[in-house]
Design a protein that fits this description.
The protein is mainly beta and about 325 residues long. The protein has helices spanning about 275, 315-325; strands at about 30, 45-55, 60-65, 70-80, 85, 95, 105-115, 120-125, 130-135, 145, 155-160, 170-175, 185-190, 195-205, 215-220, 225, 230-240, 240-250, 260-265, 285-290, 300-305, 310-315. About 5% of the residues lie in helices and about 45% in strands. A hairpin with a 2-residue loop joins strand 16 and strand 17. The structure holds beta-D-mannopyranose.
């Protein structure tokens, strides 16, 4: 096995379970799944496709909560162990930079990434149709909304955890107003998080892999390794009974992240367990966040299951990167 490191802080208290003995896979599910079940808070029917980060020795999160009227909103959450979450009963109160109310009409699929001392939140927001919303917090109590990134329609905004060549870089996936039967991953760059350009195509929906033959979209913030940026992403297959969402991974060039070095031909995780195949939307695994420890190379992947539950899977960076290279379709 190659000696691949994660370039990040160490995170000794992250959730972890060893790989079950005899399991022939590089990713394994938590035995505690699903970690968040139906009706997690009075106003919300389901918490899924949500983002978590280390915060003040514990963990903070931004949760997608689908209300009982069907509309999704973002709620903050706190956890001591990354497994049991206390989710705020009220949605995040967004104020713009002048202190005005900046509440989105709906908000879903958040990602959170720490850049220097600030936590940036990206989500799919309401702007005459879906596009990428952006905001920041330093304490998970006060949230400031910044400018939306793009004209509609766009989803799956995923910010890299540091500037590259002096610019912020955001993966994104141009889409439509509905359930989008197409989609490739692009990236856009910005000197100031306000003006975005220098757009590049990163990767197309699957060619060899039919599991990702309809569309793909970025998942958690990419993880830096000396081999490149480790990106988990979702890939969608169109079947006679609707879309099936699985997870794959790619490694992008460190300095030119629109260059794909390796990409799994096969999915790494696909709906198999009952909490993934059965729920509000059957057959969805949708990764939005990771916790990872530079010292041990452990990675915990948070994913939404069946648009209903929050679930966790684990992997180890050396074994995973070796597998991605071995299974690469590039
Ligand atoms: C996508 C998004 C995701 C969702 C998925 C499956 O278009 O809405 O939030 O998990 O569909 O329903």
């Amino acid at each position: 096995m190659s000696k691949v490191r994660i370039v990040a802080e160490s995170l000794k208290n992250m959730p972890w379970e060893d790989k079950p003995e005899g399991l022939d896979a590089v990713i394994w599910r938590s035995s505690k799944n699903p970690i968040i079940n139906w009706n997690p808070i009075p106003v919300g029917a389901r918490a899924f496709n949500s983002a978590v980060v280390p915060f003040e020795g514990e963990f903070a999160g931004v949760f997608r909560i689908d209300y009982k009227n069907g509309r999704p909103h973002l709620h903050a959450g706190r956890s001591e162990d990354g497994l049991e979450w206390e989710i705020a009963h009220e949605p995040i109160e967004w104020l713009d930079e002048k202190g005005n109310d900046a509440k989105p009409g709906y908000a879903y699929d958040p990602r959170v990434v720490k850049i220097e001392d600030t936590y940036y939140i990206q989500w799919c927001t309401d702007f005459h149709g879906p596009t990428i919303g952006l905001g920041l917090t330093r304490d998970f109590k006060n949230f400031t909304r910044l400018e939306n990134l793009f004209v509609p329609y766009n989803r799956n905004g995923v910010l890299f955890p540091r500037k590259i060549n002096g610019r912020y870089v955001m993966l994104n996936r141009p889409s439509d107003t509905g359930h989008t039967p197409f989609g490739d991953i692009f990236l856009s760059q910005s000197p100031d998080l306000k003006f975005w350009g220098m757009h590049r195509h990163v990767m197309s929906k699957g060619e060899l892999g039919w599991w990702e033959g309809t569309k793909i979209g970025g998942g958690p913030a990419p993880i830096e390794t000396p081999e490149g940026w480790l990106l988990f992403y979702h890939g969608v297959s169109n079947t006679c009974n609707g879309f099936v969402y699985s997870m794959g991974a790619a490694i992008l060039d460190l300095e030119n992240p629109d260059r794909v070095l390796y990409r799994t031909r096969d999915y790494l995780l696909t709906p198999e367990k009952e909490y993934e195949t059965t729920g509000f939307v059957p057959n969805v695994v949708f990764p939005c966040a990771t916790l990872h420890d530079a010292e041990t190379g452990r990675i915990a992947i948070y994913y939404g299951a069946a648009d209903t539950y929050t679930a966790l899977a684990y992997t180890q960076v050396e074994e995973l990167v070796d597998y991605i290279k071995y299974n690469s379709q590039v």
